[in-house]
Amino acid sequence: MKLRRKILLAIILLVFIPVILMGSISYYSFSHAMEKKSSNFYWVSLLETDRKLRFALSELTTISNSAITQPAIQKTLKQPDFAITYEQKQDINNLINHPMVTSFGLYSKNKLLYQYNEAMSFGELSTQSWFEAMRQAEGRPIWVGPGENGSAAAGNPVLIQARIIKDYYSLEDIGAVVIYVKPDLLDQVFWDAATLKQGDILLVNKQGKIVFDKSGSHIGEATEFPFLADGYDNERGYYVDNYLGEKSLITYLPSYNKDWYLAAITPSRMIASESVSIRNIAVILVLVSLISAFLFDRFFVRRLVGSIISAVNGMKRVQQGIFVPITTSVKADDERDLLIDGFNRMSKQIVELIEQVQKEQNRKKEVELQALVAQINPHFIYNSLESINSMAVLEGNRNISKMVVSLGKLLRISISENQEMIPLAMEMEHVRHYMDIQKFRFEDKFSYQIEVPEELKFYKTQKLIVQPIVENALYHAIEPMEGNGIISITAGESGDDIVIDVRDNGPGFDQSTLLSLWSKDWSTLKKYRENGVGLKNVHERLHLQFGGYYGIMICSSPGFGSIIRIRIPKMVP
């Protein structure tokens, strides 16, 4: 396929498809915005409905709160075997008096003591599904709607408030009261609730039963709203789902009564009707974008292809190793000129990089040759020490022989190639030889001891990590002392790690001294052992080799010596 046709096809895809996506996204975004707007509208309506419901129910709760603490009811329940006089009945009726109350029943622990109009017997009360909830409420009122108590199905819907009555002084349960309220109370609350056209507002309980609804046609029916399930985010929200066989927007809100939820239902077709105009605009935009793509090809793509072909021909010359700049006869003053200029700069940079690589290769060969020559020196020194040892033995000077042997073994580990990890026993042996050599220099100035458990000797460790620590202790702690110094090297286990403690009885140092030494630049130091470089070197080597968890820890205090702890992982050979 020709390049021009490919670009035309790409333009169609890059314009045509985005416009389709834009139209689709706009359509769905608008639909979602309408859903959200409807949800917010309903949320405000549900919030206002719940506020009115709370006010209406609280009014009755206030009456019952006052009534159950009055002597007329308290005395009647404390003396269930006495007959209730006419005056007591009048007093009780006056206490529970409200236009919405149709009847009520006053119960002792095992029987119905008094009823106004009509109330269920104690036997019927104890079989109600909400009886146990009333007992567990510990005197707080519970509300049972028409769809929960079965009164709606029986054709005589009522709203029930039930609560345990406690003794005013001892707070012991002495009875219960069940108040029957006209459903008109809920009608008044829900009638003023704002709804969209063909919408409805439901009051449902946690078991999915419709306690009450604005339309009044679904009271007592069972539903399966997802927000009623355990673990669902049921604070406030909305979603789209089928309700009564129709796709609907469902907005829900927990009621002030913890056992109820308010849910608003709006058919989705009512919301989608507002988005038809957006869909039509999207179709028109798709047609316009297709025409624009063909016009763009005619007036721009054909010229752009010429510049790209020039760049392609230049690339072919580069493949052959010919770095010739591309020249153009006509300036376009746009990205086509940037393309040609970029290619020319690239060709120039490639030539420079090739020259730089050649120079680096030559330098690398020189460094490798120097490294090979440098390896000769340690081997020559080691062989020379062997000769000196033989001469010392022949002369009978055992001290010189012992010192030369120790120095030779130190050099053997130092010049070992491709052996970064060595057994812990070999590392400690290296330290022992170093200390023996230093004993010749310091004579009886210090003593040392090395303790390594037998089971740890064969674990692998990075070489030359203990000797720099010991050297640091020797020069910075033992040498300045007037008396005899002691250096102790001890290895032990710590879980899956090995810890090596290097202790000395030197003068110690404070934190500021350590921080000043640690922050110094290595390149400015005259000697390797100067100013604690050995500590920092070992710490960073262990960091690089084993990770940030491993390294050294320094504990010191002026006048109490120092402890340097090395932590390494257990590595099986």
From TrEMBL:
Molecular functions per Gene Ontology: ATP binding; phosphorelay sensor kinase activity
UniProt topology in membrane: Multi-pass membrane protein
The enzyme's E.C. designation: 2.7.13.3
Occurrences of domain Histidine kinase (ranges): 466-572
Main location: membrane
Swiss-Prot/TrEMBL catalytic activity: ATP + protein L-histidine = ADP + protein N-phospho-L-histidine
Keywords for the protein's UniProt record, in alphabetical order: ATP-binding, Cell membrane, Coiled coil, Kinase, Membrane, Nucleotide-binding, Transferase, Transmembrane, Transmembrane helix, Two-component regulatory system
Coiled-coil regions listed: 343-370
Gene3D superfamilies: 6.10.340.10, Histidine kinase-like ATPase, C-terminal domain
Compartments where located: Cell membrane
Annotated SMART domains: HATPase_c
A GO CC term assigned to this protein in UniProt: plasma membrane
Transmembrane segments: 7-30
Name assigned to this protein: histidine kinase
Organism: Paenibacillus lutimineralis
